[in-house]
Predict the 3D structure of the following.
Amino acid sequence: MTKELILNNGVTMPALGFGVYQAAPEETVDAVATALETGYRLIDTAAAYGNEREVGEALRRVGIPRDEVFLETKVWISDYGYDETLHAFEKSTGKLGVDQLDLLILHQALPTRFDLTVGAYRALERLLADGRVAAIGVSNFMVEHLDRLAAETSIIPAVNQIEAHPYFSQRAVQEADAAVGTVTQAWSPIGGITAYRPDGASAFEDETLRAIGAAHGRTPAQVMLRWHLQQGRSALPKSVRPARIAENFDVFDFELTDAELSSIDALDTGVRRGPAPEDVTLEAFGRPIPEA
Ligand SMILES: NC(=O)c1ccc[n+]([C@@H]2O[C@H](COP(=O)([O-])OP(=O)(O)OC[C@H]3O[C@@H](n4cnc5c(N)ncnc54)[C@H](OP(=O)(O)O)[C@@H]3O)[C@@H](O)[C@H]2O)c1
């Protein structure tokens, strides 16, 4: 298990990162500053989260040199199309207060407007060629979306960020990613999305994860993160609480056995908790991203 992953273009990315979806803007500065002080060096935000400005503020507050932090953000669907996505890069970097991004990804495929998705990805290819981003990728791309993209563009995504936790691990997408050297990056890696929903059991309460955790003196969240890291995925836990931010980073000094990894794999229900990627349309989800 390595703390860092080498992307398909040779760029090094920390495997464990910090997510800020649903971190309110007023909480985000403190949360990201705490994460950086704890040792996280990968921060994942998105234009659609409405907190890029606060992420940038935290980076400046902590004062870690820009080249020591891996900064990742996402283009929202309302900014798809070649020129629009080039402009979205300017909007995001303006809010973050940086000149360059380490990883820029498309937040979703737009299956009914794949032309716009391709235009957006070609803009990412341009930004990569111009050195404005160190790596490019996608998020929530299913196997058919990866195939369509590969047929129409030149650069294989460095990363595909997808919903992945013990209850929904998306093996087929992971295998498609691995087949072309794309890193699978887990969103909701500790099953946060299971806890948000009233209609299902929370992964934090799972008996299997608790039992494995007890065997190592670890929490279910730490067990889930270790499962991702040992299986070669990047993972992006989110918390706004300092104790949990520290807990989620304290996963580098224990090892799950193969049997434990297999018993976590067996928790997969095949049931997605987040939005179905094939149903994402501009009409339903295309709210505009502010200029500043
Ligand atoms: N690409 C996409 O479409 C997409 C979608 C969703 C998420 N993401 C990315 O993935 C990141 C994480 O996803 P997520 O926030 O859905 O899920 P998550 O990280 O799996 O879980 C976060 C939730 O769990 C709680 N939590 C955090 N650490 C905990 C711990 N050690 N013990 C118990 N509870 C804990 C958090 O609450 P507190 O904050 O109160 O601690 C929050 O409610 C996001 O921030 C974002 O960067 C991407």
Observations:
- The chain is about 40% helix and 15% strand.
- The radius of gyration is 18 Å.
- Residues 114-129 form the longest helix (16 residues).
